[in-house]
């Protein structure tokens, strides 16, 4: 979505779709992307790399670093959640009212990166991701035998659910 935001902004620089408000369409997708990338780099990637290098099982304690900044990056999800319904309504209404924006949306939906989904569907993906983190941690917890790792995972689950 960050790429599409940049395309829309560039179109506006060229004099097209000037009445469209990019932040109402794409909200803070760029912030979410950066935070998810950091989560991957700090939490999941080190765990996968170690497992591949050592040939052993995944070490959940390495994933803990990915959740260490959850309080910081959750503010971006809060902003997204608060604005999500308004964003979808804005896209739907503007798509009907502005033919050129409708064409932009159709072009977006024709891109391979959209995986044959509508723009509206793709704009909702971060909502789905939020529900997956606690589920992922609970499944990892079930498969973990080390008590220290279990404790770290339980702390991450509690933090994710807002029970610091």
UniProtKB/TrEMBL annotation:
Signal peptide: none annotated. This is DH domain-containing protein. It comes from the Eukaryota. SMART domains: RhoGEF. It comes from Panagrolaimus davidi. Pfam families: RhoGEF (PF00621). InterPro entries: DBL_dom_sf, DH_dom, PKHG5/7. Residues 25-164 form the DH domain. One of its GO terms (biological process) is Rho protein signal transduction.
